[in-house]
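stuck on this one:
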Amino acid sequence: MRWKGREGSKNIDDRRGQRIKRGAGVGIGGIIMALVAIFVFKQDPMQVLGNTMSGQGQSQTSSEPYRPSAQEQEVAEFVSVVLRDTEITWGKLFNQANSRYQEPGLVLYSGSTPTACGTGQAASGPFYCPGDQKIYLDLSFLNELKRMGASGDFALAYVIAHEVGHHIQTITGTSSNVRKLQSQARSKAQANDLQVRMELQADCLAGVWANHNQQRTGSLERGDIEEALQAAASVGDDNIMKKAGIPPRKENFTHGSSEQRMQWFNQGLRSGDYNKCDTGI
């Protein structure tokens, strides 16, 4: 993806080097259970983290000199440019709909950081917190993404655009409607299905962004779309369960299968129309 020389976002909060000090630590058993819940069963990271961190003492942040490598700093600059690209795209689309786009923030952190949704940890991967309307990203996630079979700059761009999709769901009321329906669900499987539909819509919105951003910047290079599709496939529930040695069970899906995630990203990419992102929620 050609990105150098383009404007970066002013909504980046760089907390790398900050650490959270706690009165009590999380036991290794709790960490393992949290990782299984997040990466195998794809449970809501903030819910898992909240349960994991509950009952601990007061925390405070400390700042240490942080010296990122040249490669890491380049990735941070890339993240800033991608976020700015999403701001431009969605700002224009909201304006066309006679509305104003409320830009999200994006926090770069290392290890852990306080959020309005609880304590964010690198183990949760990238996530969006509706409480403060910010995306949280520890760049060490790239190593996990590669381990899962996805790599390349546009794979990371897809991840960011997906989280921006959750922000759009929040500011348009979709997210709150889904949470209300989930509270009324008759079973865990029914609640999970609603979650899957919301995640797939975020994938579709990421595709819509990719379509419009390409029209504006012409930045895509050969193989970029394949990188995004591979990233979408890698984080499919069925793929994650198979890698963990667990038979995939649809009723336990919360993000959708690899095929579904690729399908809905492609839906947004081909159409460029967010109205085509109706996943039934």
Notes: Residues 23-37, 51-59 have pLDDT under 50 and may be disordered. Residues 103 and 264 are 23 Å apart (CA to CA). The first strand starts at residue 12 and ends at 14. The two ends are 33 Å apart (CA to CA).
